[in-house]
Amino acid sequence: MNAKNQALSVLYRNMCGGWCRQGKGFDKILKELLSIRHIFCSQNMSAASERLSFGAVKTGADCAKKKRAGQCNLHIYTSGDWVHPAMSSKAKSTRVDNAYDRLKSEILRGDLPPGFQAPEPDIANRLGMSRTPVREALIRLEADGLVNLVPRRGAKVLPISRRDICEIYQILSALEALAGRLAAAEKGGGNTFDGVRELLNRSDEALKGGDIEAWAVLDDRFHRWVAGVSGNTRLDTEIAGFLDQVYRANNVLLRLNKAPASNAGDHLRLVDAIEAGDEDAAAEIARGHRLTGLARMKDLLDSCGLSQV
Question: What is the largest CA-CA distance in the chain?
């Protein structure tokens, strides 16, 4: 049974119970169920929510009584977000997101360095949280390629290998070229360019002052800006995942080198091309910028004798 049919089955059982208690006859119940199925399959969520709300109020209240008596393990709510079980509460999601954001930030900054390993209870204690949201956050971080979950040993922070860096930069050279082209086609999507030019000025000041860590933060923000003004949400999301790994590598290698991995002047040229609507130039600058950065990263790894960071 697929997910849609499973959901319908749950809805049918719950709605029938509510409607029967309201005294609705079989014909009326059948008509309601067919109507719900039609709305559900057409993805008209607001209409479905409105249709379900009358029967669900009674069902929800009745189920709550049973739940207090230990007889009900499913409580259906209806809202603009369609129908969801009580366990998918906003509060729980917030705790998971909080744990995920804090752990991810510590990994990207290097506070939890590659090779760091700790059992789940220790990580939960570190965050001052219960184990459930921490466990779910670790599962998400594993999907991001930042940690490896080891049975009975907890989570281990993964390093970034030379091969990882090569593959990431190669992929970004293509994705960011596309982002630059799309951004130029829309001339930045109606965004003003004062903010990004100010960001580049701050980046230059950080380099002049030898603050490579501040430069790495500003460099990351610039590349996320390019992805954002492309206007392609899925492209933006894909690029963001790779930029997380670039930021990690920068935090290690650029501290050793005390210089950017690529020509910072490319950033200004890229902004100019996007603002002018020059699609070919924007794509080529973005592509060349990443490939130059890749060559520099390889040199840094070789000079430092590192196979991973």
Answer: 80
Q: Minimal CA–CA distance to 282: which of 165, 186, 168?
A: 186
Q: What is the pLDDT of residues 142-162, one digit of tens each?
A: 998 899 999 888 999 999 999
One-letter amino acid for residue 222 of the chain: F
Burial class of residue 34, CB neighbours in 10 A (0-12, 13-18, 19+): exposed
For each successive 10 residues of the chain (309 residues), what is the average pLDDT? 46 46 49 48 43 39 40 33 36 82 91 92 94 94 92 91 94 97 87 88 88 88 95 95 90 71 83 96 96 90 83
CA–CA distance from 130 to each of 21, 102, 141, 251 (Å)? 40, 14, 17, 30
Domain map of the chain by residue range? Answer: 3-85, 90-157, 162-304
CATH class, domain 162-304, is: mainly alpha
Nearest to residue 287, comparing CAs of 172, 190, 189?
172
Q: Is the dihedral of CA 301, 306, 307, 309 positive or negative?
A: negative
Quick one: residue 117, left, alpha or beta (phi over 0 = left, psi -120 to 50 = alpha)?
beta
Task: Please report the pLDDT score of residue 20 as a whole number.
Answer: 44
Positions of E strands within 104-258: 117-118, 147-150, 154-157
Strands 154-157 and 147-150: antiparallel
pTM: 0.65
User: What's the topology of domain 90-157?
Assistant: Arc Repressor Mutant, subunit A (1.10.10)
Is the separation of the CB atoms in 235 and 175 below 8 Å? yes
